[in-house]
Each structure stands twice: as structure tokens, then as C-alpha cells.
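**User:**
My hope is that you can spare some time for a protein that puzzles me. This is the protein in question:
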Amino acid sequence: MVEMHYPATEDREQFDKFYNKHISMLLTIEGFQSAQRYETTHEARAPFLAVYRLRDPGVMTSENYTSKAGPTSVDPNFKSKMTNWDRNLVTGDIETMDVPDDGWMVLIDRLTSDSAPLPAGFTPLEIIGLDTTIAERGVLVGDSGEPAALAAQDDCIVRTFRAIQAPRHPN
């Protein structure tokens, strides 16, 4: 999962085109199974999210990945404008995080192991690599309608996302 803020609204269209090409490149790497981009429905420190489904965590250390991708694969013109950029490799008992056009996804990030527990209905995602900026992430995906409003929790960040693009898979 890659999250960030891209406050440069004047070239957002060009950034989106770049990111689409970037996803196309990532989906050529053996082990990348799908990708989808999201944007929060509210103000957030990191309002953009990309979720990549991998065959297994070893994909991120494979020669095929490290020779083509990672932070150095981002166009410097865009990278200099990206803020609050974090990459967290997660695992959990979830079949898919694909969100349809009229669906939504809520993420709860537990910042420390002492943070409030995840609410009922959220699938826990264990942080197993890369930046490991949080203790645990919880996810809830809905196909339509509006997600339930959640009360603020101590040491947790709650974000609601809508899909920017449909899920993509390797050709």
C-alpha cells in the first residue's frame, strides 16, 4: 500500500497520467496481481492511496522489482511535489480490496500497539515490511452506499476512500 499527498493541483492531470503508466509498468513485474488507486472523501495527511496485490511479500525484494521499481522509479518532476509518502507492506485475511465505482473503503491505522482496537467488522492487516509507519491497519470495503460514520479513536487515523480508477490486472 502506497499513500501520499500530491498538493500540486496545477499538474494533477499530468501526475495521474504518469501514475497510470507507472502502474502499467508495475503490473509487468512477475508477482504483481492487481492495482487500484483511491482518494479520500475528506481532508487527510495522505489523501491518495494505491493498493497493489502481490503473489507474496518476496516480490518486493525480487530482482525483477528492485531493478525497475521502488522510490527511484518515480519521475523526479512529480516526486519533488509528493509529500507524506509512505509504503507499508501488509498481509491479512482479505480476498480483495477492490472498490467498485460506487463503493468505498475505510482504513483505520493504529499508530501504536497501545492504540484503540479495531472496531467490529474491520479486517486487520499486519504491517510486515517497507516503511512500517504504523502498528496495524484495519480495512472495511463496501460495494455501495455510504460507510458508517466512525467516532475518533485515540492514536488512530481513520480515512474513507473512493476509487479513482477501476482495479487493474496484468495483461
About this structure: The chain has three helices and eight strands. The beta strands are 2-5, 32-40, 48-54, 83-92, 104-110, 123-130, 136-142, 156-163. The longest helix spans residues 12-26.
